Structures are given as structure tokens and as C-alpha cells.
Amino acid sequence: MSAFSAPDRRFIAFAEKKVKGNHLTILDKKRLMLCRDELESMVNEVKSITEEKRKILSVKNMLQEALKLNQRLRFLVVEPQHTIPDVFVWMLSNNKRVAYARIAARHLLYSACADHRGGTVARSRPCFSRYP
Where is the Ferlin B-domain domain (predicted)? Predict the structure, then answer.
């Protein structure tokens, strides 16, 4: 849990610098402030869990607390309005659109760093089609 707070502090410092930029919209600034506040509260929760003054938690309770923090982090990671459009794969028959599949861009993006790659980069995956 101590490894959790160091990267969060760096993101909070980065968010503070980023909010002062003039190229961000009001929505971007509010989103960064929301992430910053949420991360600060999570860091404080981690500190309170790991403090020796607090009553000792069982392993089960500690795991539940860690899963709650994980769920909150996952909520922050998913962008509600991603700037890159999704990819649509269309199935055509006689120049008519018969079915389509929508793939989120964050699953397809490539990065040199393995941690920042999308989950399905360089893999074939099934596309379940829908009727248009």
C-alpha cells in the first residue's frame, strides 16, 4: 500500500500544473480537479489503514478495503468522454450495411511502453456484430 501513494502524489502534482494551463476547457479542469481530490482522499485512506494507531484489521477486511480502492481507481481511469473516436467495423453485403461492431479506441492504442498499451493490441479478437 505504501507503493500506492508515491505515484499518486506525482499525479496530483502533475494535475496541479496542468490545471493552470490555458489550453484546457472548463470540463477538463473540473475532471482533473475531481481526479486530484479523489486521489488525495484515497491516499489518506491508505494512510489510515496502514497506521499502527488504528485498530488492527483482519486480512479479510484489509482485502475488502483494497478492492474498494481498486474499484475507485478503475472509475477514475475510464474517461467519460474520450477524445479519440471509437473504431467501427462494418459488415457490408451488396453495398448495404448489414452489421457493425464498435471497439473502444483505448483497447487498440499502441505505445512503446507495455503498461500503456491497449488490451487487444497486436491480437486478433472476436467482434460480435449488432444490427444497425
Answer: 80-132
